[in-house]
Amino acid sequence: MSESRTATDRLRAELRELGVTGVYEVGNDGILSVWIGLVIRFRDGFYRWQEGPVKRRHLGTDPGGCAIRVARRYAELQADVPSWWEDLAKILRGDAAEDYP
């Protein structure tokens, strides 16, 4: 198992413990999608997460700390879901998308 895969698996487990359960992997590069445009990848010993043009990074040796930061931002986004999200989700993924980002 690659270092990137191990790191993203650990992060996904930490996020799950914090109640962020809708995380899914995008492609085979160890990129995790958490919410609309909020993605995380592991590279060069850092978790690098991005939401639109905003980029952050967190030490790869601290998946728990990174998960806390990402879960906090996820909760903020969930509290103020863009009005266009539900319509777009239905168009792109069908009615089964519901609250799955």
Tell me what the structure shows.
The chain is of the alpha+beta class. It has one domain (3-93). Helices cover 41% and strands 26% of the residues. It contains three helices and five strands, in the order H-E-E-E-E-E-H-H. The N and C termini lie far apart (27 Å).
What average pLDDT do the residues reach? 84
Structural class: alpha+beta
What is the total number of structural domains?
Answer: 1
**What's the total number of strands?**
5
Main pleated sheet: 5 strands, antiparallel
What does the overall shape look like?
A: globular
Gyration radius (Cα, Å) is 14 Å
Which stretches are low in confidence, meaning pLDDT under 50 for 5 or more residues running?
Answer: none
Strand arrangement within the widest β-sheet reads 1-2-3-4-5
Order of helices and strands: HEEEEEHH
Give the fraction of residues assigned to helices.
40-55%
Cα separation of the termini: 27 Å
β-sheet strand percentage: 25-35%
Number of helices: 3
Secondary-structure blueprint of this entry?
Elements: H1 3-17, E1 24-26, E2 31-35, E3 38-43, E4 46-51, E5 54-59, H2 63-79, H3 85-93
Antiparallel strand pairs: 1-2, 2-3, 3-4, 4-5
Descriptive labels:
single chain; 101 residues; alpha+beta; 3 helices; 5 strands; globular
Summarize the structure.
With 101 residues, this protein is of the alpha+beta class. It has three helices and five strands, in the order αβββββαα. The protein has one domain.
